[in-house]
Write a structure and sequence with these properties.
CATH topology: Four Helix Bundle (Hemerythrin (Met), subunit A)
Low-confidence stretches: none
Helix content: over 70%
Radius of gyration: 18 Å
Mean pLDDT: 90
Shape: elongated
Number of domains: 1
Structural class: mainly alpha
């Protein structure tokens, strides 16, 4: 059960990567931007392509710590129902954050979703640490 939220979060990252590629290709094809030397991430993309790109890259930041805590929970055999529920809550918040990021992109709402996800992620780490150190 613990791997289902991981797969759901990877699905979000893959969907955003595909969307980002399509948005960037459309912008280049339509003349909306020109990519010069260097990283395409630094190009002057139109807003829709930039929002999706930023959201995709955001999936490579905070979720990294989620993947690590899940792996540790699996290795230590501490992934119980509470851990799975917290994991799904984190993933749901990441989806909501991505929808806000690629949609209205209101900073206050986006930050609230990011902060809520960070708090749930911290709760996952604390919960795992307590389970490991109180089981001794």
């Amino acid at each position: 059960m613990i791997l289902a939220p991981v797969f759901a979060l990877v699905l979000l990252a893959v969907a955003l990567a595909v969307w980002m590629g399509r948005a960037r290709f459309a912008a280049m094809k339509g003349g909306g931007t020109r990519v010069g030397p260097g990283a395409p991430r630094n190009a002057d993309w139109p807003e829709p392509a930039r929002k999706v790109s930023d959201s995709f890259h955001n999936q490579l930041e905070l979720p990294l710590y989620f993947y690590v805590v899940v792996i540790l929970a699996l290795v230590t055999r501490q992934a119980d129902l509470a851990f799975v529920v917290l994991s799904w809550l984190f993933v749901a918040l990441r989806y909501l954050h991505a929808f806000e990021h690629t949609g209205r992109n209101k900073l206050r709402a986006r930050f609230g979703l990011f902060a809520a996800g960070a708090i749930v992620l911290l709760a996952l780490w604390l919960y795992l640490a307590l389970k490991i150190y109180t089981a001794v």
